[in-house]
Design brief:
Oligomer: single chain
Number of strands: 3
Helix content: 55-70%
Radius of gyration: 22 Å
Mean pLDDT: 91
Low-confidence stretches: none
Number of helices: 8
Strand order of the largest sheet: 1-3-2
Shape: elongated
Length: 196
């Protein structure tokens, strides 16, 4: 749910408002054709709707949007954990870790209007995967903990929680050499930031 003016300001900040609106109109036409190639001209759109000056993207049960699925899993994990159902919460968080294969909404990176929202999404997903890593280690599942920590480090090689879980997972299995190597990698990552 976003106002048309917010979209034009974000995507075409240097254009005058009339040209930006024209660009948006053309872009929305192409997007509607992509989302609903069977839709006839003049027939109301299902997926991309307009209410006055507001555009809405309508979810369809047959469509899969990975970000929406990840957000659903994160919310489900919170609810399950709040009710003491940690095994099910871990399964939900595992789905988030499996789905997090690249940078979220990469096409919107660098668009100032979306910076805060993208940072919030990144933080939410990273926190979910870090929670999975920590809970797994606490539940004596060192392998799952290490896997989740590696997912985190692929996205942020400086993530201290991930480094801590990796060190802990090696210690949990009695692998002192692996724990030392993980501690050394953590120290190198922090040194590259000027910390340490």
């Amino acid at each position: 749910r976003t106002r048309r003016a917010a979209i034009t300001d974000a995507l075409w900040p240097d254009l005058d408002p009339e040209r930006a609106r024209a660009n948006l109109s053309v872009t929305l036409t192409h997007l509607r054709q992509l989302l609903e190639p069977e839709r006839r001209r003049g027939e109301p759109a299902f997926h991309l709707r307009q209410q006055g000056d507001v555009l809405l993207l309508q979810p369809d049960p047959s469509s899969v949007v990975d970000l929406w699925a990840m957000q659903h899993h994160i919310e489900a994990a919170k609810t399950l954990a709040d009710h003491g159902r940690h095994d099910e919460a871990v399964a939900e968080l595992s789905a988030v870790a499996s789905a997090w294969v690249g940078e979220l909404l990469v096409d919107l990176r660098g668009v100032d209007a979306f910076d805060a929202e993208l940072r919030g999404l990144d933080r939410s997903v990273a926190d979910a995967v870090a929670t999975l890593a920590e809970w797994s280690l606490a539940r004596d599942d060192a392998a799952r903990a290490a896997d989740a920590a590696h997912v985190l480090l692929r996205h942020d090689p400086h993530d201290e929680r991930a480094h801590g879980v990796l060190i802990g997972s090696h210690l949990h299995t009695g692998d002192l050499t692996g724990a030392q190597a993980a501690a050394d990698r953590c120290e190198e990552a922090l040194a590259s930031l000027g910390v340490g």
